[in-house]
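=== RUN LOG ===
request id: a7f3
mode: sequence -> structure
chains: 1
length: 137
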Amino acid sequence: MASVSNLDDDDGAVDGINITPLVDVLMVVLVMFILTATAQVAGIQVNLPKASSTVSLSQPKTKAISINEAGQVFLDAYPVTLPELEDRLRTEKALNPDFPVIVRGDAVVQYQKVVEVLDLLRRLELSQVGLVTGRAT
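=== RESULT ===
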């Protein structure tokens, strides 16, 4: 009589795939994505007003409009006039019609300057607009 081989033999081929290294690599990539996605727009120092709750609009392709204490307007850390800002935003809208815009106004800036920028965004029919605030202390 021939002997029957044992099916529980540890020396046989493995039919499954070990996904542990893949999960480790994906976790590292996820952490790197989170760190780079939450990076702030660098360049212009703005003293933000405080609010009790804030919403993050950090996305790739987000355009940041900053207004410093002197009333100067910046688009992604580059100084612009309101007509230049309108031209650049029109160009961006032609390339990507639904891009988010955040407005960072200094706490001591004249409210009229922020209203002018918001009015410009309304005329361009940009729907994803956020106002950046600091956290309440």
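=== NOTES ===
The radius of gyration is 26 Å.
Residues 53 and 84 are 32 Å apart (CA to CA).
=== END ===
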